[in-house]
User: Fold DNA starvation/stationary phase protection protein from Chitiniphilus eburneus.
Amino acid sequence: MEIHTGISERQRGDIAQGLSRLLADTYTLYLQTHNFHWNVTGPMFNTLHLMFEQQYTELALAVDSIAERIRALGFPAPGTYGQFVKLSSFKETEGVPDAQEMIKILVTGQETVVRTARGLFPIADEVNDEATADLLTQRLQVHEKTAWMLRSLLE
Assistant:
């Protein structure tokens, strides 16, 4: 069935492609954060274990929202590790770094997702896709705040 929302199929496809990259970055960050939650050690264990849990829980909800927006635009959402690896802007960290390095890695991951989301704004703005712009704004707020909180632990 055709979609008649005021945004052409090509434009919706461009937005869906950008959202697919955002989904891949968010899912990769989710996996990394969950891994660090399981494996963190040291004097900051309790603080980081709980913080990482809050962060990966929020990311799990985010991937659902992003995927549902892709579907609302009329396109399939990527959902395999292989697709995410191809679409993601960053790679997972192998092994188990120390707690300080985990924090640095997660700051970089949060900032990567911010850049991916920010890069999609011009496409959404061009076609007045307020729903995608709203989703992007919400994601920017969460990731910028999380990056700030993580950076604060390093000072």
Summary: The chain has a mean pLDDT of 96. Helices lie at 9-39, 45-72, 81-87, 99-126, 130-153.
